[in-house]
Amino acid sequence: MILEQTEFSGRWQAALVSVLQVLMVAIFAVGLWLGNGGVAVNAGVGFLVTLLPAFLERNYRFTMSTGLVLWITGAMFLHALGTLPLPGLDLQTLYGSTWWWDHMTHALSSSLVAGVAYAVVRALDQHTDAINFPPRFLFGYLLVFVMAFGVLWELLEFYISLVAQLLGNASILTQYGLDDTLLDLSYNTLGGLLVALFGAVHLTGVSDELATRFDRRQRERDD
Questions:
Q1: pTM as predicted
Q2: What is the DSSP string of 29-53?
Q3: Which is higher by pLDDT, 9 or 33?
């Protein structure tokens, strides 16, 4: 019974991933139709990111669970949706009209960054005895890594907005002021904290597969 529920859940998650991908393509098309480069670029790049798990599986036989693929796809979709001007909001975006939207997407995006960092570091820890990451160190490492990445992202947003203003174009990424930046960094930290607390439960499969590939590459070099 548990196996059946798991298989059903996997099919449901895979179907939801496909639906979100189709919606992202639709958002991309709307962005092109409106002549809105920000919507088109964010939706297009986000859609390409959602294809990465299938690309890794097809070309490198690196398999992610459907839950992780849904996590990635959901984060990309919510970001793309947030950039789309909506009629029900008088053509405002969710980022501009809904105070918590930006914070939610920052927390989701930072959790993805922290998830990648966790999987790679844990795989290296398993792969070689020369590297040892105690749980407390790994916890602190993830938080610092996510905070540093968040600072770099905010700088990227600032400079992209600045260049867009100088050129008289609409910005692909928007920064809403210092207070918003500080809140973004706080929610980035929250996303990293969640991964630090629960990563061992949900990302073990990814890190184990990475460790196996590291071991295989090492044996091939030794041979």
A1: 0.78
A2: HHHHHHT-HHHHHHHHHHHHHHTHH
A3: 33
